[in-house]
Design brief:
By secondary structure, the chain is of the alpha/beta class. The chain has helices spanning 2-13, 35-43, 65-82, 94-104, 120-128, 147-153, 183-194, 198-212, and strands at residues 19-21, 48-57, 86-91, 111-113, 132-135, 159-161. The longest helix has 18 residues, at 65-82. The model has no long low-confidence stretch (mean pLDDT 96).
């Protein structure tokens, strides 16, 4: 909740910055009963463009899976009520994430699988459901499995790029603090696999972001 408030504060200062608000699965402990009402108030700010990142994380938290699912669904309902897309975090929880989106609740405005795991089945299901896929530093890692194959199967109009700053710096800067200057390495990796100019990838993903988040 606190970082959502901070994101709005920063977005309100700069006309080129926008914010998402939401509670990630790693931050659901000790939420107030009225957290959804608080999130709704924040989301009414005109610089807020999505609810997120929200989802499931069984890497860090295995003991509260049912609560994670509950909070994920509650926040999708909020996004639906506000006609906003969602930004999804999923880590070692592919099956349950897809099950919720396919069978438990429909997400009206869809959204983005943020820093999407390079899991071919997840990506295929996400695309079928109408979601977009956002790539971060891991697609550039030398030991990254499936990176090229996943990049190849995603249509250009459904693709975004991101840093996940301050984490996951791409090659050749892996292990250092990440920031938005490094986005060029992710764009270059995609350009190499798609056999396209990097400027074209930059332009397409920029326009995709504008469309998805209604910028």
């Amino acid at each position: 909740m606190e970082s959502s408030k901070k994101a709005i504060e920063i977005a309100n200062k700069y006309n080129f910055i926008y914010a998402t608000v939401g509670v990630s699965p790693n931050d659901i402990e000790n939420l107030s009963k009225n957290y959804i009402i608080e999130l709704q108030k924040m989301a009414n700010n005109n610089k807020v463009v999505a609810i997120g990142e929200i989802g499931l994380d069984y890497y860090w938290n295995k003991e509260n899976k049912e609560e994670q699912k509950q909070k994920f669904i509650e926040q999708i309902k909020l996004a639906n009520s506000l006609n906003l897309p969602i930004v999804i975090h999923t880590r070692e929880a592919v099956q349950d994430t897809i099950d919720i989106l396919k069978n438990k609740i429909e997400c009206k405005q869809k959204g983005v699988f943020h820093c999407c795991p390079l899991n071919i089945e997840l990506v295929k299901e996400a695309l079928k459901l109408g979601f977009n896929i956002s790539f971060a530093g891991p697609v550039t890692f030398k030991n990254s499995k499936n990176a090229n194959e996943v990049i190849k199967i995603i249509p250009l109009e459904r693709m975004l790029i991101e840093t996940d700053s301050p984490y996951l710096s791409p090659e050749p800067l892996r292990g250092t603090r990440n920031d938005s200057r490094n986005i060029k390495y992710i764009a270059q990796k995609i350009a190499d696999v798609k056999e396209m100019p990097v400027e074209k990838i930059a332009s397409i993903t920029y326009e995709n972001a504008k469309k998805i988040f209604k910028l």
